[in-house]
Design goal:
Blueprint: E1 16-17, H1 22-29, H2 46-66, E2 69-73, H3 81-86, H4 91-112, E3 119-125, H5 140-155, E4 161-167, H6 170-182, E5 187-192, H7 205-216, E6 222-226, H8 230-238, E7 247-252, H9 259-264, H10 273-286, E8 292-295, H11 301-314
Helix pairs in contact: 2-11, 4-5, 5-6, 6-7, 10-11
């Protein structure tokens, strides 16, 4: 039974942390092979599930020291039909994997949550294509149909909400939102931005937020930015406007590299955790309603600890 589906606590304010770059941490720090960046593949066995538990626990402890709560995103960013096909999953096996990911998050919540430290479970959804490039853009209707199966699976679990990460285009975000609305699941849309602060399709972030809102009657609970360095979207945020109130979350990269550079790099650019924390503190000073904070590619618990401490001191 979902605990917070009808009343997400992060929407009432307070600092909520998330984890960092799950896949990059598992690959570069833990030496785990993730075909197609598919962390859900680890849910098949006890060793993989243990690796996911070990990954999450430091973040939860950091959040307990520095934040009001924590968002548990399931390891399901790649757990949709096309990616499942690449890894040999049937539709039923893929659905079971999505359920298993939420069950693992519920297990962690049962272990760590307290009355004054809420932990919200989010079913993570990724783009049908690559998270760095727009590729072939689906219509909103096709996106709704494609993502509908994963979202329907999440609706039958303890997931409080879903979060669609690294959205590269507007139509896919609209389709996901409509599929979530059909299942009465709160949905968050997180767009990825290029070094110019625009979506990979070239659309502006303001246009993306306003177009999705118009097409879905303000369907998303809120919006986020992920997989971009704070300097990449500073000018975008500085433009001002009422649409900025729809943004609540940030999961930035510490690296200043472009998506193309990150994709081609043989190494991991972790940037500077302290610098990233200071940049988040400044963003919180300018936009006090930004309260769901974590990291993306290349970040780990060091970055999230710096973010939590810097933002706690600034509160």
């Amino acid at each position: 039974m979902a605990k917070y589906r009808s009343n997400l606590p992060q929407c009432d304010g307070g600092l909520y942390l998330t984890d960092g770059g799950l896949e990059t941490t598992l690959i570069f720090h833990d030496g785990i092979d993730l075909p197609h960046f598919a962390a859900f593949h680890l849910l098949r066995g006890a060793r993989g599930r243990d690796a996911l538990r070990r990954y999450h626990r430091p973040y939860i402890e950091i959040a307990r020291r520095t934040a009001a709560g924590f968002i548990l995103d399931s390891p399901s960013w790649r757990a949709s039909a096309d990616w499942g096909d690449k890894l040999g999953y049937s539709a039923s096996a893929l659905a079971e994997s999505n359920r298993s990911g939420i069950a693992l998050m519920a297990e962690l919540r049962a272990e760590f949550e307290t009355d004054d430290f809420p932990m919200v479970i989010s079913g993570a959804i990724g783009p049908r294509g690559d998270g760095y490039v727009a590729g072939e853009v689906m219509t909103a209707g096709k996106a709704e149909a494609y993502h509908g199966a994963q979202i329907e699976t999440f609706a039958g679990t303890e997931a409080d909400m879903i979060t669609a990460f690294t959205m590269t285009n507007i139509d896919e975000a609209i389709g996901i939102t409509r599929a979530a609305q059909r299942q009465r699941l709160p949905v968050v849309i997180s767009f990825t931005l290029e070094t110019d602060g625009r979506l990979p399709t070239g659309d502006g972030l303001q246009e993306a937020v306003e177009t999705v809102d118009a097409a879905t009657e303000n369907g998303p609970v809120y919006y986020m930015i992920n997989c971009a360095h704070p300097e990449h979207f500073a000018t975008t945020l500085a433009s001002g406007g009422a649409w900025l109130q729809r943004l609540r979350g940030l999961r930035a990269n510490a690296s200043r590299r472009s998506h193309a550079e990150l994709n081609d790099a043989p190494d991991l650019d972790a940037g500077d955790p302290d610098e990233l924390g200071a940049q988040y503190r400044e963003l919180r000073r300018l936009f006090a309603h930004f309260n769901v904070l974590g990291g993306c590619c290349g970040t780990d618990h060091r970055h999230v600890e710096s973010i939590g401490c810097a933002c706690k001191l600034a509160a």
